[in-house]
Amino acid sequence: MNNLRKLQKGHACRQAGFTLVELLIVIGLLGAIALIVIAAINPIEQANRARDTRFKADGAQLISAADRFFAARSEFTWVTVSKAAGGGLTNDDPYGFVTAGDQGIGICGATCATDGYLITTDELKPEFRNRDFIEATVVDKQLMIGKSQGTSESVYACFIPASKATRDKAVADENVYTISAADGTRTSTTICDAAAANWVSSACYICIPE
């Protein structure tokens, strides 16, 4: 009788708990589910996408400010800066591509510790000068501004996107460019169309306006 009770008790214990193998299986399944969730969420991609969205918004804001400055004064900010320094730049001349912290763009003054023309004329808020890309020294962290030859040519803000989603859309929309610091031109390119393309080393940019 005692032996029967012991057997029943042991059987009940085994039913109430998990064996080591069962625990390992459950842990393995939970780990697999966690990996799937992380892959779906992809926090790095989400952060990169948010960064690209900020760059697009800031680029659009900067271009709008530059357009308003030109409409009010009939000259680009770099022409105003050139005149103040005794230079001879005209609206017809190309400018850039240069970083957004360049004095001629109008965010920074003689240094980025002072306000440029777009801020002193209230086209941009002073806080804009504190954007990370203003004094960035690495190309994939910079916002580049430029205009090619001709008064009627548009001013563009270009940057190297960080997120895969932004890059894929740019390729699909054929909005991928190389840019020139010599004459402010941007040239459509397909060198970054491949999935394995290195956008930074290949210097592939997307531009605003598109």
UniProtKB/TrEMBL annotation:
The keyword Cell inner membrane does not apply. It comes from the Bacteria. InterPro entries: N_methyl_site (IPR012902), Pilin-like (IPR045584). SUPFAM superfamilies: Pili subunits (SSF54523). Keywords: Membrane, Transmembrane, Transmembrane helix. The chain crosses the membrane at residues 20-41. This is Prepilin-type N-terminal cleavage/methylation domain-containing protein. The lineage of its organism: Bacteria, Candidatus Woeseibacteriota.
